[in-house]
C-alpha cells in the first residue's frame, strides 16, 4: 500500500517550470534562489581551465610584461632599462619609506615613478610568473593604453621625469645615475682653412638622431654623423661690394 502511495505521488507531482514557486508542488524549485549560484552550466568552461604550472616561468628564463593594448613601446623600454645593471642597482638603493613600513597583510602601492620602477624591476628579477602586469606604472604615467605614442618622445620624457625624481635622493651617486648611464657629450668644432682658427661648442645629449638610409650597421650611421662638413665661407669686399667664396 505504501509503495502504491509513493507511486501515486511520483506520478501526480511533475517537475514545475513555472516562474513562481508553487505552494502545492514540493518538486517546485522556483524562487528559492538556486539560480543565483547555479546559473547556466557551460560545459566548455571545464575544458578551458589552464594548468597553473603553465603560468610559471622556466628555469633561467626572463619574465615578460603584459601588453595592455598599445603599450608595447613601454614594455620594450622597460626591458632595456631593466637589463642596465647599474640603473637597476641604483633603483634598488633608493629610499622607499612605504616599502619599509609595508607588511604582508596589505597590498603594497608604489607612489613615485622611482617606486614604481623599483617595484617592477624587483618583480622582473624575482617573480616566478611568466609575465607580470605593468598597469600600475602605466596608470601613474597617465598613458592611454589604447593609443600608440611616439617611442622616442616617451623615452625622452620618462628619462627626464626619472632624473628629476632621483635628484631628490640623498646619495650623489643616485642623483647622477641617469647622466652617468644615458648622457653623453660631443663637441661641434668649426675650423677655418684660411686663418687656421677654430671654435668649439660643447653639447650634452641623451640620444642621437642618426640617418639609417643606405647604411648596413650602426657604425656606418655614427661615422656619417661625425663626418666633416665643409661650409663655404662668404667673403665680402667692402670696397667694391662684391662677394666671393
Structure, described:
This protein is α+β, with helices and mostly antiparallel strands and 245 residues long. The protein folds into three domains: 2-46, no CATH class; 59-180, Cathepsin B, Chain A, CATH 3.90.70.10; 185-236, no CATH class. It contains eleven helices and six strands.
Question: How is the topology of this model organized?
Answer:
Elements: H1 2-12, H2 34-37, E1 64-65, H3 72-82, H4 85-92, H5 97-101, H6 113-126, E2 131-132, H7 135-141, H8 151-166, H9 172-175, H10 177-182, E3 184-191, E4 198-205, H11 218-226, E5 235-236, E6 243-244
Parallel strand pairs: 1-2
Antiparallel strand pairs: 3-4, 5-6
Helix pairs in contact: 6-7
GO biological process, one term: proteolysis
GO molecular function, one term: cysteine-type deubiquitinase activity
Keywords: Hydrolase, Protease, Thiol protease, Ubl conjugation pathway
Computed structural class: alpha+beta
CATH superfamily of the largest domain: Cysteine proteinases
CATH T-level fold name of the largest domain? Cathepsin B, Chain A
* SS field, number of helical segments: 11
Strands in their spatial order, largest beta sheet:
1-2
Mean pLDDT: 77
Task: Name the poorly predicted regions.
Answer: 1-13, 237-245
CATH class of the largest domain equals Alpha Beta
Give the % helix. Answer: 25-40%
- What proportion of the residues form beta strands (DSSP E)? 5-15%
CATH architecture of the largest domain: Alpha-Beta Complex
What is the N-to-C order of secondary-structure elements (H for helix, E for strand)? Answer: HHEHHHHEHHHHEEHEE
Can you tell me the overall shape?
Answer: elongated
Distance between termini?
Answer: 128 Å
- Domain module count: 3
Organism: Labrus bergylta
EC number: 3.4.19.12
Pfam families: UCH
Enzyme class: hydrolase
